Structure formats: structure tokens, C-alpha cells
Amino acid sequence: MGRYRSSQRIWRRAKLVTGGGMGAIAGWFWWRPSRILGLVGLALGLLQMFLGGLPLDLKVYLLGGATVVSDPSALYGSSIDRLPFTYPPIAGLFFAPFSLLPAWLAVILLTGGSLLCLLRTLQLVLRQLDGLVCLSSDRSLVLLTLGSLLLEPIWRTWSYGQVNLVLMWLVVEAVLGPKSDRGGWIVGVAAGFKLTPAVFGLYYLGSGNWRSLLRVMFAFAGTVVVGLLLLPSATRQFWTETVRDAERVGGIAYTTNQSVNGALWRLFGQGGWPLLWSALVIGFLALSWVTVRGFADAGEPLPALLTCAVLGLLISPISWSHHWVWAIPLLLFLANRVIGRPRDKGAVALAVAWLVATGSSIISILPAGEGVEYTLSPELKAISDTYPLLGMASLFWLWRASQNSSFHRCRPPTE
After folding, report:
1. Which pLDDT tens digit goes with each residue over 219-277?
2. Which residue in 277, 262, 275 sits closest to 363, CA to CA?
3. Three-point CA angle 58, 61, 64, nearest 5°
4. Strand partners for 79
5. DSSP state letters, 310-361
6. Half-sphere exposure of 48 toward its Cβ, with a 13 Å CA cutoff?
7. Element (DSSP H or E) covering residue 260
8. Cis, bond preceding 412 (omega within 30 deg of 0)
9. pTM for the complete prediction?
């Protein structure tokens, strides 16, 4: 507990120096775990450049940024290794300055930044979990962050050069951070950068926080307006054409597409079963609405947030396995219920299943590509749908927990 209080003192001192709020992130350069993970990020970035060069998805990001600088109208016509830029125009603007950096520096910044985002995410999540207070020390946070690199969504995010950990931190900071009353602005900007965070508007809707919901909407609209002003041609193309083309980001049936839509494509063949998918989406939305309302009424922001995350991953047309970084805070939440009294047997089963699924990286060893997914045996097809199956089970468990009057958080946030 002494080290936990020490980190708290450093955090408060950083807020005083930087003026509080989001500016306190600068204080991480004085916090030992941040320095350690910053060095690890440096090492991993250099290792990645040495072994495989620039990560694939980071190549696409930098291509988008470079195209914004050179020929903005060609933003959605350019590609690298047959992969086009798929994010909204505002993301291209964000990546523009990074495209001017040396490749090795861009890799190090993304790797180190992602590790720090994961560290902060775990810190905020653990403050909501009374049973896991032992993991809140500086050493435990560092070890937990490094241990998370062994889980498939995390190491695949790193190997591809993805921004999933940054986006997850933005949402968690918005809801669980010290300035959560203004978090709607952050969620809205994150949704403008990559559309999927828009699902977290359900959190504010379900909790009846209309002011924050309006902030989400205004911030999102602001990113669209900025895009129209600075990149008019690309913005019109994205919102009238590109946004409707789900297959643009990759094959829907591909094994690593761990959404319900992807599972239906693999099960029923090309095209899936649109009517069933639509029915499931409506059902998941209704179940999530009830769940978020239940947790909101009980004053439980973390499980309400996790409900929205699982919902978004299930109903998105494409949810690559590395998008499931939300499995890590979900695992911590389940672990907190496992050690509680009485022990939650459903939480035990889900925690073990998620740990095995993400720790074994079973998704990554299955056959994929060239339509082989359609020819897999029923057993392998079931394994290829591991994340959506566990996601549906987790959503149902969260719904049951939200309706349980004995379910509560014993320790409030300490920030």
C-alpha cells in the first residue's frame, strides 16, 4: 500500500505542475512505471524494426498521412500491400505529421505510447476493483502491463502497429478518469478518428447523462466539419461511399474477423445470413441497453463501459482479433468477481475461457485466407468463432450481474 500511496502522491504533484486535468499525463515522465515501460517501448520498437521493418498497419497510417500532405483527394484511392486507408479523414490529418518522421521514430512513438496507454488503462480499471487492490502497486502495474503483451489481442496490436490501445485508453480516461464529467468530448473525438468508439454513446444514454451525450455528438460532428473544411473531397468520398464498404477493410469471412457477422459468414457461406445478423444486432442492443441502465442505477461505471465495449465488438461488421483488447479489462473485472464472496461461478468459467483463448492465441494458428474458412470442419469453425462466442456469453453474464441487487463495488475511485 505504501507504493500505491507513493504513486498517488506523484500523480497529484503532476496535476499541480501541469495544471490538472488531461495535462497531468505529462506527469508520467516522473512516474517510475512510465519510465520503465517507456524504455520497454523503445526496445520493442527497435526490435520490431530490426526483425520485420515497419508494421503493416502503421504503414497504412503513414501512407494516409503522406497522402493528406501530397494529394488529399487520393486519400481513399491509395493503398500499400493491397491495404487501403479506411479511417475517417480526420485520422489522415492526425497521421500527417507522423508521416514526416523517420520510420523508426514513428514505430517507437506508437509502441511506447501504446504501452503507456495500456498502463494508464489498467491503473484506472484497478481503482474500480476492491478485490484487486494488491495489483495497484507500481511493480504490479508494470508486471501486469508487460504480462498483457502475451495475450493475442495485445501482441497482435503491437505486431501490426495498431492504435487499439490508444483508443481504449481514451474511452477509459473519459469515463473513469478525474475529468469524467467532460469525457463526452474525448469519446466524440475518438469516434471521429475511428467510428467504433461511437458505441460508447450508449453509456451516456443508458446512464441518462444527456449533457455528456451531447458533447459526444458535438465533438464527433466537429471532426466531420474539420474534415470538410480541410479535406473536402476526401470527406465527401468517405461519408458517401467508403463508410458503407465493409469489405474494404478485409475479407469478412477471414478467421481473424471475430465479429458475429464474420462468424455467420464462416458458418453459412459468403454473404452470411443478413436477416439473422440484423435480429442478433437488435437483440444485443436491447440487452445492452438494459444492462447499462442496471449498472448505471447501481453506480457501476466499469461494467457499464465493458458492456458497451463487448456490444461494439459483437455488432461491428468487422472486429479483428486485435480489436478485442477490451478482453484485458474484462478479465480483470471477472477476476475481481472470482475472488469475491460468494464466488461467482459464471465469472470463474468466463475468466478461465478468456485467459485460455487469448493466452493460447488459438485464433492465429487456424487456417485462413483464400476461402479456406468455408471448408473448415464444424469443430474448427466453432474454434474460429471463439471471441464472438465468449463475447456473447460475457454480455449475457453482464446482464445477469446488472440485475443482481447484491452486485456492487466496495471501493470507489480514489483519484
Report:
1. 999 999 999 999 999 999 999 988 887 767 778 999 999 999 999 999 999 899 999 99
2. 262
3. 150
4. 84
5. HHHHHHSS--BGGGGGGHHHHHHHHHHHHSSSS--HHHHHHHHHHHHHHHHT
6. 27
7. helix 260-268
8. no
9. 0.90
